[in-house]
Design a protein that fits this description.
Distance between the termini: 39 Å
Number of domains: 2
Structural class: alpha/beta
Number of helices: 23
Number of strands: 16
Radius of gyration: 24 Å
Strand order of the largest sheet: 9-10-14-13-12-11-15-16
Shape: globular
Oligomer: single chain
Helix content: 25-40%
Length: 604
């Protein structure tokens, strides 16, 4: 089907505003491109260092400069369930590379922290900044110029965006992203959420809560809810950086291993040494970025990507704005219900057709650029498939099933769960923010209630325990922005606010911090910018001020006389305690230079 005219119009607007920066970026990567292996220009001592640890066959090939060399950048550690499967991947990749006539070396590792472990803890203040550390680490890994292409092993929240930003800094090289896959389904998400709320109310003890959580997060693989980690995998496939059908295959299965080997071979096939040269810097253009935003809206994906996609686009010389997100949301329907937007998890989504069915529905509705370059070739049609394994252990692909009109997980574009996207942008006299509405009951899209102001999430939790919040209110949790303390997620507030909402109170959250990619049924205006630490309007809100959050019309306002509100001095908070301990002192320079949330909250 022809591309939807509004999609075309928005893409053209992005391309026009990005013309100068995009051309500058393309000129930069062209200057580093080479017809042959870059390592051939290295001095003999440099090259000898680069292959000193290789086996004799690999060493001979690299010395003669006749074989492609594949760099592996890995986020492996065995504490994170999502990344533990990567322990085996380098051996699979090396074997596949040799079978294809190439060599593969681990170029370097990047840190990978888990927001699930640090949620509500001091370490969470390093979380968002870890994305930029990962980008820097990726650049260091590739700086030896030994490689003709690279594969990237990463899954979770900040890891994939950081790897993409780092890969784009070496945009003259092809890049293939290889997922690890989700863990099998554990207890239902509804049951998990029920126990969390009972614990918040003091009706079950810690042992019961831990037992429930352990049955949910129970083995190797990505957490199965549709948070930032699984939104990352969706993005990598819809933007053409995964091999088709590979995003949501469980780890430690024959198909997962076959897909990993296939991805390594594909990376070698698209180097400058062959006829399908596909450098990531040229592949990720305005059309690919728009496809990513469309996928995010169609699946009700993570709010974190309103920052990550902006930062990724910027790394490729493309200027993406929250206004683009808002405009695309108006024409992209919500096609999936995956927890927290529904009761299903990503394994159920995969069983319903997964990415192949989703991409076909969006293509058929004219909502995706189908003519983009991908690591698989030209065109997204090749991604309307599901991957299987044949009797010989090789990957085979077949057309993905059709979406069913009465399905509970994945629907056709003609019969969506809702007519517009799962994310909305907000503007008003409190600044700009975003809200995830795909999991919020439409009757709660409009909240008007008095403000109760907090300067950290512990204050809100304490007030809840004291029984002070049994009323209609909007919680304003401020001084949680990137300059204040690194913009931690405030997902630990979800159970308390959920309890109050279930008791019949009108509640909402307004914050310059983040919620998890799993933010759910409580309306939450997040990423509010300018942040309080910069004297933004949120720093002038007082207890009792009436606030209006209108997700339907996209507004966020304080209902105070304009002259009076403007005359108020912004509150100043003592944030000295956020600058020391648990590594936070090392990130002082990051907090000083980080951009606002709507510019990607990045240091570059």
């Amino acid at each position: 089907m022809a591309l939807h005219p509004r999609i075309a119009e928005i893409t053209t607007a992005i391309a026009n505003r990005s013309a100068v920066s995009r051309r500058r970026y393309l000129d930069e990567i062209s200057a580093h491109a080479s017809k042959g292996p870059r390592r051939g220009a290295l001095g003999c001592a440099n090259l000898a260092h680069g292959f000193a640890a290789c086996n004799p066959g690999d060493k001979a090939g690299l010395a003669a400069n006749v074989v492609p060399n594949l760099g592996i950048v890995t986020a492996y550690n065995d504490m994170l369930s999502a990344h533990q499967p990567f322990e085996r991947f380098p051996d699979i990749i090396r074997e596949a590379a040799r079978a294809a006539g190439g060599v593969a070396q681990v170029a370097g590792g990047v840190p990978a922290m888990c927001d699930g472990v640090t949620q509500g803890e001091t370490g969470m203040e390093l979380s968002l900044f870890s994305r930029d550390v990962i980008a820097l680490s990726t650049a260091v890994a590739l700086s030896h110029q030994m490689f003709d292409a690279a594969v990237f092993l990463g899954v979770c929240d900040k890891i994939v965006p950081g790897l993409v930003i780092g890969a784009l800094s070496f945009g003259h090289l092809p890049a293939v992203f290889i997922p690890a896959g989700p863990m099998p389904t554990g207890i239902s998400n509804d049951e998990k959420n029920k126990i969390r709320q009972l614990y918040a109310e003091g009706k079950v003890d810690r042992a019961a809560l831990l037992e429930s959580e352990s049955k949910s997060y129970h083995g190797p693989g990505t957490c199965t809810f549709y948070g930032t980690a699984n939104s990352n995998q969706m993005l990598m496939e819809i933007m053409g950086l995964h091999t088709p059908g590979s995003s949501f295959v469980n780890p430690n299965t024959p198909l997962r291993d076959a897909l990993t080997g296939e991805a390594a071979k594909r990376a070698l096939a698209i180097t400058a040494l062959g006829n399908e040269f596909t450098p990531i810097g040229r592949m990720i253009d305005e059309r690919a970025i728009v496809n990513g935003v469309v996928g995010l809206h169609a699946t009700g994906g993570s709010t974190n990507h309103t920052m990550h996609l902006v930062a990724i686009a910027k790394a490729a010389g493309i200027i993406l704005t929250w206004e683009d997100f808002a405009a695309l949301a108006e024409v992209v329907p919500l096609l999936t219900r995956i927890y927290p937007n529904g009761s299903a998890d990503v394994n159920h989504f995969q069983a319903a057709g997964g990415m192949g069915t989703l991409i076909r529905e969006l293509l058929d509705a004219g909502l995706l650029h189908g003519d983009v370059r991908t690591i698989w070739g030209t065109g997204l049609d090749a991604y309307t498939v599901e991957a299987k394994i044949d009797a010989n252990g090789a990957v085979q692909r077949m057309p993905a099933p059709k979406a069913e009109t009465d399905a509970k997980v994945l629907r056709p574009a003609s019969q969506p769960f809702q007519a517009n996207g799962g994310l909305k942008t907000l503007t008003g006299n409190l600044g700009r923010g975003v809200i995830k509405i795909s999991a919020v009951d439409p009757k709660r899209h409009f909240i008007e209630a008095p403000a109760i102001v907090f300067h950290d999430q512990e204050e809100l939790q304490s007030a809840f325990k004291r029984g002070e919040l049994n009323k209609d209110f909007v919680a304003v949790v401020r001084f949680q922005g990137p300059k204040a303390n690194g913009m931690p997620e405030l997902h630990r507030l979800t159970p308390q606010l959920g309890v109050l909402q279930d008791r019949g109170f009108k509640v909402a959250l307004v914050t310059d911090g983040r919620m998890s990619g799993a933010s759910g049924k409580v309306p939450a205006a997040i990423h509010v910018t300018p942040e309080a630490e910069e004297g933004g309007p949120i720093a002038r809100v007082r207890n009792g001020d009436m606030l209006r959050l209108d997700a339907t019309n996209g507004t966020l306002e304080v209902l105070v006389d304009a002259a009076e509100f403007a005359a108020r001095a912004p509150v100043v908070a003592d944030l000295s305690a956020n600058g020391t301990g648990i590594g936070r002192n090392l990130f002082a320079s990051f907090r000083a230079v980080v951009s606002p949330a709507d510019s990607g909250a990045c240091i570059f």
